[in-house]
Amino acid sequence: MPTFFNTYYPMRKVVFFLGEGILIFLSLLAVDWYMLGAGLFYLDLPLNAGRAFLVTLVFQLCLYFFDLYDISGDLSLPNTFTRMTQAFGFGCVILAFIYYVAPFMIITTPIFWIGYLTICLTVFLWRGAYYFILRKRFFVQNVLVVGTGTLASDIAREIEGVQDSVYKICGFVGTGKPAFNPYNAPVRLRLEDYEEFILKNKMQRIIIALDDLRGETPIKTLLKCKMRGISIEQGVNFYEKITGKVLVERIPPSWIIFSEGFAFSRWTYHLKRLLDFILAIVLFLLSLPVLLLTALLIKLESPGPVFYLQERVGEKNRPFHIVKFRSMRQDAEKDGAVWAAENDPRVTRVGAIIRRLRIDELPQLLNILKGEMSLVGPRPERQIFIDELIKKIPFYDIRHELKPGVTGWAQVCYPYGASELDALKKLEYDLYYQKNLSFALDLLIIFKTAKIVLARRGSR
User: How far is CA 2 from CA 217, 240, 264, 432, 441, in A?
Assistant: First the structure.
């Protein structure tokens, strides 16, 4: 099975994250050592290292939740400094609470604030240097794309359309003009025309992105490139790696049959179930005051039941009743089932709030305890919609081979959608999750879900 973090998070991004953590940690230790002025021999290193590690952990979590590790777009240093200050300020509030609970972790006031200013300076300089590397396209892999059609343009858009791409397109092979070619990479008729160019530019990867695979593929030249150490990848595989989704409309059934992934052991299945059960109990106990308050507000605002039960399709196409807080009028579907809409007039005032905060999903913890759902998995859908989607979207029924989830890769990567096109886009992410299922990916999804809930994005 492919390793998720080796594909979705390239080494350069990992180095950036770890390097920033080391800088925060060493900055605080250096200030501590300097302020004590007694030399390293007299420094209570284990305790002070623990305190510095706590600050590093809290600050990096705040940087993550303030989207400062998503640098695919804006690389403005003034904007980065403003958001970084906000993140660190929120981190100081969290640290104040931790220090109140665990006073032995407190850093003396002069050391903490001088350390804080030192951290701000070093992190700002670190990010400035990294942004410079991104703008100048240093430490990127040179890529040659065989094809100039839709797939080639989609790949080019994903590579060249983001600031932190680890690839650079040096040319295309084909008869047409790519729809997306912002840096005017050369387009040549044959792969053989690039032989000298490949050697000179130290080409590291060739992507076969032909819309029609029945066309002529330069096998001999590709074999020669392979023997020279150049990686050769299929376009759909490369697209999956850099986007975190599967191009559903471009893959044949054989691609799924012969791909690595799409399977996990019985041991993994039972361990995932055990973790779901434990986490569901913990979350239920922690959220119990919120659950009781929400139930009371729903009952006071409008007539009808507190909970909303709706039949959904679960694992192996088995139906079950999903449990949610009622967020709409009792007669919301008197005219039949319809997709939810933005600013849906059927939603009550309390319903609008609990939807925005995702509180309406909390009762699904009961579905997890009953074994009908998992914490992470594809979102369960209604049979009436599934019957239509299976007719129009290839491989849609595959998503029901997994236990549905309260949250999932599609939910954290794609904005809330309620249409057939949205269902197709979300299926691309669901299939990626099924192919690369792992505890590391589940953990990332949970972290992303927490960030989305705190930022109140994507609800409807």
Answer: 27, 12, 12, 11, 12
